[in-house]
Amino acid sequence: MKLRIKPLSPKLGREIPFPYYASAGAAAMDLHACLDGPVTIPRGESRVIPTGFAIALPSADYVALIFARSGLGIRLGITPANCVGVIDSDYRGEVRVALQNSGPADYTVQPGDRIAQMAIMPVVQAGLEITDTLDHTAREAGGFGSTGRN
Question: Is the pTM of this model over 0.85?
């Protein structure tokens, strides 16, 4: 599949890299902060960081999902504020990443920093069938932790 990408900033492709897969086996593309200057995210707060581009997914059969970069999340507590960002197939605005700082200190995003990753995934739009009953399972309504700890 081809993902059409529209640069929205003259910095893209010059000072700021286009999204790219960092290795041959990478499932998601690295996204970079397209900023004029540093942006500090105070501890406990969030900021929306622009990427400088828009995309056109080929159809409603696909979605772009924005995930944390594991190093930022694990080491520094910098993750997407909405856990996973969803870019619908009909959205044509700038891809922006809401970053939350749940780490122990303020964090400064520099222009060009890798801030998140974007994976393109297939989508199934389910048709709803309203019913009074559901089929029975061994688990039934067991909620959080109901299947054990291991």
Answer: yes
